[in-house]
Amino acid sequence: MIDLKEFEVWFVTGSQHLYGEETLKKVAEHSTIIAASLNDAKQIPVRVVFKPTVKSTEEIYSICEQANTTKNCIGIIAWMHTFSPAKMWIGGLKILQKPLCHLHTQFNRDIPWNDIDMDFMNLNQSAHGDREFGFMVSRMRKNRKVVVGHWQDPEVLEELNTFSRAAAGWNDWQGAKFVRFGDNMRFVAVTDGDKVEAEYKFGYAVNTHGIGDLVKVINETTEAAIDSLIEEYEAAYTLVPSLLKGGAQYSSLRDAAKIEIGLRTFLEAGNYKGFTDTFEDLHGMTQLPGIAAQRLMADGYGFAGEGDWKTAALVRAMKVMGSGLPGGNSFMEDYTYHFDPENPMVLGSHMLEICPSIAHGKPSCQIHPLGIGGKADPVRLVFNATGGPALNASLIDMGNRFRLLVNEVEAVVPLHDLPKLPVARVLWKPMPDMKTGCAAWILAGGAHHTGYSQNLTATHLQDFADMAGIEFTLIGKDTNLYQFKNELRWNEVFYQINK
In terms of pTM, does the model score above 0.90? Predict the structure, then answer.
């Protein structure tokens, strides 16, 4: 499991020597209280660590340098309690490589109307000091999240929660490794892309292993390990009779378990955080990984089919960001439409590999022919997904930049049984409506593969895109095509100028 408490964000307060030692003692006292309160807040999933007040160019540079080299530090929350002249921040901000959140708050919530004097004003001037800091960050064209409000306000805590989760996902990509078994699906465009640029931009590496490398590890699996994993299957899922011991297809279940053990062993040995495969390259394997990919995703690995490494990496980042929240994240594909004018919907699924973290109820473990790939019938988990607010996200290589495209959706419980559809599935209504949502997705070049989330919001992914320095485009309840087309045009110009 992914434990976000392993990570920390540093609470850094800016001031200066101008105000004297008594004022600086108060600044440190207030900052300590705020940092401790944020650290204890149940809304914030990471540790919030107090750092001493920075009052000079040298101290600011040092704290930014330390943040860069501290492995479990995933970001900085900066606050100017008094007035911290922003020229002092230039050197530190120039080298800062960790995500930055500017918390525009003050220690006291209310003005003490009867007692306020100039001493109080000099101490509590964040409204003044944060603007000076904000100018310099903007002047340096540095991406950051700005959170405004009193530090005890539940909305402020939720915004810091969102920032922390996005920072955890971004941190997880740094130095991450994803493996492709085989190449991209032949002739397919959107699932491919520039892996060199991705490593430069995102920090993760994608490299290919021939399927034979995986098959070798699969074939080393012991019968005892297979027996143990099948016991897990029997406890967690409802197995169809043919897959039970003594059933006609029990050997297929053993083959599926053998593949899962081999895959997990390969990923752990290589310290990979996700993988892709393709049904066009399965030489030496008995069946396409179905239940194996599903269960590995449920354990936090990124996955996407047909060599789609961008979506595999995105699913992993979404898994990290959503860790500990109700609901799940999964590889997904827009598969077919329900064009009923009174109730239009999208049916999302894939050949096999939808993560059971999004399942409604106990999945059924089944076996069915695949129809493509030329291999034995694969074992898979079949289920309906839960209803409620959700989103689809697509990471696209536009040639001159990466674009993160998000469509907010409303998932719905299937209106009818689907007795002949042998795959996991989810129904949703795209925002703002079917026609606009689908047209906007196509205009933006959105892929057919996505990361589907029940527990993240568009804001999580917008913060994530800002940290990555890439384009973010949202299709939501307020989208209209006229404005959306203009946004795409303006973005094209901006990224040409800004590259």
Answer: yes
**Rounded mean pLDDT of 26-31?**
96
Query: How far apart, in Å, are the Cα atoms of 297 and each of 40, 294, 304, 328?
Result: 30, 5, 10, 10
Tally of CA atoms within 13 A in the half-sphere of 496 that contains its CB: 6
CA dihedral for 328, 334, 335, 341, sign (positive or negative):
positive
Strands 329-338 and 345-349: antiparallel
Neighbouring C-alpha atoms within 13 Å toward the C-beta of 147: 27
Q: Quote the tokens at residue 405.
A: 């495209």
Residues in the chain: 499
SS (H, E, C) 249-286: CHHHHHHHHHHHHHHHHHHHHHCCCEEEECCCCCCCCC
Would you say 14 and 84 are in contact if contact means Cβ atoms under 8 Å apart?
yes
Helix (H, G, I), strand (E, B) or coil at 241: helix
For the stretch 422-441, pLDDT in tens is 999 999 999 999 999 999 99
Tokens of 232: 């897990």
Of the candidates 346, 339, 358, 353, the residue with the CA atom closest to the CA atom of residue 454:
358
Under 8 Å between Cβ of 439 and 475? no
Backbone angles phi, psi at 88, to 5 degrees: -65, -20
Q: Please report the DSSP string for 158-174 in residue order.
A: HHHHHHHHHHHHHHHHT
Tokens 């101290």 — which residue? 59
Using one digit for the tens of pLDDT, what is the confidence trace for 400-428?
A: 999 999 999 999 988 889 999 999 999 99
Give the other-Cβ count within 10 Å of 416's Cβ: 5
Closest listed residue to residue 477, CA positions, set 433, 441, 412: 433
